[in-house]
Amino acid sequence: MELAARFREVDTTAICDADKTTRVMHSAIKLRSAQPRIFGPAYTVRCRDDFLGVLQAIETAAPGDVIVVDGGARELALAGEMFARGALTRGLGGIVIDAGYRDIGFVSTCQLPIYSRFLTPMAGTTVKLGELQVPVTCGGVVVNPGDMVLADEEGLIVVDPGRVSDLLDAALAVKEAERKLTEHLAAGGTLSDGTNLAVHVEALKRGEPSKLSFS
C-alpha cells in the first residue's frame, strides 16, 4: 500500500509538526506488544466492562482494520491473548483499547500492535451487546469509523482519511528539513545559524506574526 509505505519514511512527530490540530491520544494508552507501528482505518467499538463487542469487532472487521475500543477508561481487561491471536489470524492492523488488556506474557512478544490504558488480570463479562462502528472516544480524542489510526514509538494519532496523503507529504518535508539541519549541526554549525531564530524572536518582540523555521 503506497500510503503505508510513505508512513514508514516519516513518524508521528513529523505529522504533528506539520499539523498542530492532529488528534493525539493520551500517553496513558501504552504499547503492550512487540510492534509499535500502526497504519489503518479504525473499526470502532463502545463497551463498558464487557468484551463481547470487542470479540464481534475482531470477527467482522476487514484485514488491515484497527480495532479502536472506547472502554470508558475502566480497569477491566477487554481483550487478551486469544483476541490477539484471533486478530493476527484475520490480518487486522492492530488493537487499541481505552481500558485494560491482559496476558502480557504472550502479548509482549506479539507482532500485532496492541495498545491499552491498563494491564490487569481481571476481565469483563460477555453478556452485553457493544456498539460497533459508531463515533467513540479513545485516549481522549474522538475516533470515527474509518478514521486513519497511525502509531509508532512516539504514540498514537488519528487523522481524517481524506487528509492522510497531504499530511504525509508535509511530514516528509519536515523530515527533509530536519535531515539538513542535522548535517549542519554535525558539521559544527549551531541551532541559531541553522534556523531563523534571531529574525523570529525580533518579529515576535515587535508583535508581528512569525514562525520558527529551518534556514
Per CATH, which architecture? Answer: 3-Layer(bba) Sandwich
Rg over CA atoms, rounded to whole Å, is 20 Å
Structural class: alpha/beta
The biggest beta sheet reads: 9 strands, mixed
CATH superfamily: Ribonuclease E inhibitor RraA/RraA-like
Report on the structure:
The protein has a single domain, classed as Ribonuclease E inhibitor RraA/RraA-like (Glucose Oxidase, domain 1, 3-Layer(bba) Sandwich), CATH 3.50.30.40. With 215 residues, the protein is an alpha/beta fold. 33% of the residues lie in helices and 23% in strands. The mean pLDDT is 96. The chain contains eight helices and eleven strands.
How do the helices and strands line up, and which of them pair or pack?
Elements: H1 2-7, H2 12-18, E1 23-24, E2 30-31, E3 38-46, H3 52-60, E4 66-70, H4 81-89, E5 94-101, H5 104-107, E6 114-119, E7 131-132, E8 136-138, E9 141-143, E10 148-152, E11 155-159, H6 164-186, H7 191-194, H8 197-205
Parallel strand pairs: 3-4, 4-5, 5-6
Antiparallel strand pairs: 1-11, 2-6, 3-7, 3-10, 8-9, 10-11
Helix pairs in contact: 2-6
Protein traits:
single chain; 215 residues; alpha/beta; Glucose Oxidase, domain 1; nine-stranded mixed sheet; two-stranded antiparallel ribbon
Describe what is shown at a glance:
With 215 residues, the protein is an alpha/beta fold. The longest helix has 23 residues.
